[in-house]
Write a structure and sequence with these properties.
With about 80 residues, the protein is mainly α. It contains three helices and no strands. About 85% of the residues lie in helices and about 0% in strands. The longest helix has about 35 residues.
Length: about 80
Amino acid sequence: MQVSNKLNQVNDPASKVNVTQDLKQLDEVYLQLKEEIISSGYSNSDILIQAMIKNYRTKVDILENILNKQNQIKNENLSL
């Protein structure tokens, strides 16, 4: 899974804790959307599925931003 692979690449413990909390919140939203699809009888499933996809992309974007900053800091330290 892309999210778990990226999460494993986060080196800073404080960042990892914060990201894990953010990802848990997004997971809760995902589960709510999933429940809403089922309870609505799949009537608005297209809209809800798009929201679920956006939720997943948000998770990936958060992790990519952190990894980019982590790499930037690493590169700055190497150039010192």
